[in-house]
Write a structure and sequence with these properties.
Mean pLDDT: 85
Shape: globular
Number of domains: 2
Helix content: over 70%
Radius of gyration: 18 Å
Distance between the termini: 45 Å
Length: 230
C-alpha cells in the first residue's frame, strides 16, 4: 500500500479531501467547536497512514499538488481586505497597535514558558513563530537554528486552538467589535484563525487577513530580537 500511495499523484489528495469533508459533515451535524474539520482530518489521515503502514514521505509525495495550493490560497485572503480598505484607513492606528500587542504577547509568553520549563535555546527558537503562517515560520526557524518539523506542528496546533476557542473566548470577555475579533484571530491563529474570522463576518475576515501579513512581518523582526534573550 505504501508503494501504491508513493507512486500515485491523487491518492494523497483524495485521502486529504475526503478526511476534511468528513470533518465538515461532523461539524455541521453536531455543531461542537471541538469538531474542527482540520483537526478531524488530521486525526483521520494519521489513522489511515498507521492502519495501512504508509510512511509520511509517501503521503507527502502523493499529496504534493494539494500542498502547492497553500500559497495562492493564503494570497487569496487579501481579497476581503481589499474590499474593506476604507475600514482599515479609518482604524489604522488601532489596527497596528492591536497586532503589535498580540505579537509582543506571543513572543514574551514563549520566553516566559521556556524559562519556567528550562528549555534549551533550540527548543525556544522552535516555538517563537507559533502564531504565523507555516511558510514564514519555517523560514524563521531555519534561519535561527530551530527544529522546523516541530515548528510546523506547533503552528497547526495554535491555529486549531484559535479556531476552536475563538467564539467561547469572545463570548467570555464580551468582545463584540468585529475589528477586534478579526485582529485577534489573525494575529494569534494565522490562516486557520482567519478562516474562522471569515465565518464570523466580512469585517472580521478582512481584519484577520491584514493581521496575518502584519503579524508575519513583525514576528520575523521580533523573533530575531527575542532569540537573544535565552
Amino acid at each position: 500500500m505504501n508503494e501504491v500511495v508513493q507512486n500515485s499523484t491523487i491518492i494523497g489528495i483524495v485521502i486529504s479531501l475526503l478526511a476534511f469533508e468528513i470533518g465538515v459533515v461532523l461539524r455541521t451535524k453536531f455543531g461542537y467547536a471541538v469538531l474542527n474539520p482540520l483537526l478531524i482530518s488530521i486525526i483521520l489521515v494519521i489513522g489511515f497512514m498507521v492502519a495501512f503502514h504508509i510512511d509520511y514521505d509517501s503521503y507527502v509525495m502523493s499529496a504534493r499538488y494539494l500542498s502547492y495550493l497553500l500559497t495562492p490560497a493564503t494570497v487569496a485572503l487579501a481579497v476581503p481586505l481589499y474590499q474593506q480598505m476604507q475600514l482599515l484607513k479609518d482604524n489604522f492606528l488601532a489596527v497596528m497597535l492591536g497586532v503589535f500587542s498580540g505579537v509582543l504577547t506571543s513572543l514574551a509568553s514563549i520566553l516566559l514558558l521556556c524559562l519556567v520549563f528550562h528549555m534549551n535555546h533550540a527548543e525556544y527558537i522552535t516555538l517563537l513563530p507559533k502564531s504565523i503562517t507555516t511558510a514564514i515560520g519555517m523560514s524563521v526557524v531555519e534561519e535561527l537554528g530551530g527544529y522546523t518539523t516541530i515548528t510546523v506542528a506547533t503552528i497547526i496546533v495554535t491555529g486549531i486552538l484559535g479556531n476552536v476557542l475563538a467564539e467561547p473566548i469572545c463570548h467570555l470577555f464580551a468582545i463584540k467589535s468585529p475589528i477586534a475579533k478579526g485582529l485577534a484571530l489573525g494575529t494569534s491563529a494565522h490562516a486557520i484563525g482567519t478562516s474562522k474570522a471569515m465565518q464570523l463576518g466580512e469585517v472580521e475576515g478582512a481584519m484577520a487577513s491584514l493581521a496575518i501579513v502584519v503579524c508575519g512581518i513583525m514576528t520575523v523582526v521580533g523573533a530575531s530580537v527575542f532569540a537573544n534573550f535565552l
